[in-house]
Amino acid sequence: MRVHQSPPFHLTILKLSLAVLPCFVAAQAIAQTSDQPEPPIFIESDEASAQAGQYTEAKGNVVINRDTLEVHSDWAKYNLISDTVHAGNKVVMTKDGDTLTGTRLDMSVDTREGELEQATYLMGQGLARGEAVKVLFEGKDKYRIQSGSMTTCTPEQNSWALHAREMDLDYTQNYGQAWHGWLEFQSVPVFYYPWVDFPLDGGRKTGFLMPNVAYSSTTGLELTVPFYWNIAPNFDATITPSYFGERGLMLGGEFRYLQPSFGGVIRAEGIQDKESETNRYSILFQHSQQLADRLRLDINYQRVSDDHYFVDFGDRLSVASQVNLPQEAILSYSGSNWSTYLRAQQYQTLQNTSSPITPPYSRLPQWYFSYNPDLGGGTQTSITGEFTRFRSDTQNQGDRSWIYPTVSLPWANSYSFITPKIGVNATYYSNESASGQDLGTQSRVLPIASVNSGLFFEREGTLLGSNVVQTLEPQLYYLYIPFKDQSKLPNYDSGNTDLSWSQLFAENKFSGNDRINDANQVTLALNTRLFDDDSGVERFYAGIGQRFYLSQPKVELNGTAASSNQYNSASDFLLMMGGNLPYDLRFNYTLQQDLSNGTTQRSDLNLNWSPGEYKTINARYAVNRLTHIEQGSLSGQWPLGAGWYGVASYTHSFIDNQSLESLAGLEYNGGCWALRLAAQRYVTTNSEYKTNYFILLELGGLAGIGMNPISTLRQSIPGYADTYTSPKLR
């Protein structure tokens, strides 16, 4: 039976199948064996004819729909028995954001297998396009392109293309492969490849990664060709052979693993350095594991072959400035109101011959605990303690135990608070020489009492036409600790701390536990903050504070201060302020001033102007008379026009009258590709300059070629924003 209708014509193939009962019964049986029956196919055309249960032919403005697949053509024939579509003259296929056009289509609808001749295609919702003599469909979201090309550029731009005699695009695995082709950039062939594979979404896939090319003043030209091994969804490895022009061949590797209860990374690299004629290496092992519900293990082990390894092979200032490499394991447990950990810790100290440092003590082991019992009555109770065995090959060593129970009674309402607190710190030492000779025992017991109090006021008002809320927060803190001579006690981990806002209200001005200052002092401070009444955003803050001594502090880090009637009755004056100013300006400023002689001990001013996207300018001036530092820095990122952006950073030491770090670079966003150029010069720990050069070519949707300077730019330029994001094709 043949059916004819004049346009417009609309057929539902499933309804046609009902005309022939045997065919319907067979189709129904198949549908019942499947969890989800196949959706019907709809055909629209100017004219059509059908043989019930066998095929349908359509001509003129043909549109075929099934689920999310849509085919437009001049003519089409659908075979119900083989579930195939044949279409011709001009074919346009769309499926889940992919569009293919060609002259003739032969395709199995159910299996998505077939071919399209003289094809052009848009994939990844238009993010990738190309053309081919023939496109073969090899299943759902799988394509084989014969004599074709692929790019993420628009037809008007067409800056680059990946050509191949044959290319596979597998969107189920999100990777592609190409054979016997070449990469063309700006109409110039860049290189030929017999075979290459690449991710289509930035995902993980075994294979060679794009090579990295860089240059450093200490290692020369660097070429790295990484190989990535996707072992399993939760295991992978990267093998990284690198060639340094002035150093030789380095072999490196990284193994990462992740399980529900543990994960970590192992990283190692080694080189037979032809300049120093020594074997040099670097090792890193980091592991975290949840052994039980509240029991956790953390391991961090780092080691290098020599003191100058990071100076020669580190690619950033932060890496090259590392001094103490941790080698530690921590076993920790957290209870409902208590916690504890057991740690074994030592360091590899990288020495600088011009300014050697004393290596920190090893803690072999350290046991710490904290307990917060609930005694009721509104009290807060804390008991903390520690036992540590300090070890050194060159200094006196020993064991230290301390315990510090405290009780406080906080009280607060809507406009005030007061918290009295008392505690006792007891410390016991068992000392010996570096060779193990017994040096006796020592102890120290100190009561500690404090009262912290404050008020809170606020008022509403207007500022620059906006409703604001201003707060005023005075605070008073009293601390008493009696004097005890500690000059003969060992010092394993104590040091001086900078005066900061939090330090004004701290019990101890020293870090660590070997020195506890004596105190009979009052801290006075005043805070004010300005909030936008509508959004709650803080617009401005300011605070002043100072510590006043009712008696002379005597405990010093390396001894005891001599008693004197002429002593500073107050600490340095501390000022801090910051906030958002009009015209997209932001600032923050801290000042530590010695009012007794009018000298500035420490100041830090930061300014930022960010008027728009990819526009930021930073300026900083920092002075620290205590550590003999006076530095200034400028940095910024700014669009230059026509897709170009400039980046720069400069830090200068006024005391040494030399540059500490300088960086300059250019970035270009070409829409479907990007170019990044940067050069960085900085002073290393051995007071020598090192220069690194970065160049990176990014092709949209593919990996970049070269050395990426992004991490360096973000570290050197506060507020830096990436000017190009490579598209994900799926």
UniProtKB/TrEMBL annotation:
Keywords: Cell outer membrane, Membrane, Signal. Residues 1-31 form the signal peptide. Residues 278-644 form the LptD C-terminal domain. It comes from the Bacteria. One of its GO terms (biological process) is Gram-negative-bacterium-type cell outer membrane assembly. One of its GO terms (cellular component) is transporter complex. It is found in: Cell outer membrane. The keyword Membrane applies. Its main location: membrane. Pfam families: LptC, LptD. Component of the lipopolysaccharide transport and assembly complex. Interacts with LptE and LptA. Together with LptE, is involved in the assembly of lipopolysaccharide (LPS) at the surface of the outer membrane. Belongs to the LptD family. This is LPS-assembly protein LptD. It comes from Chitinibacter bivalviorum.
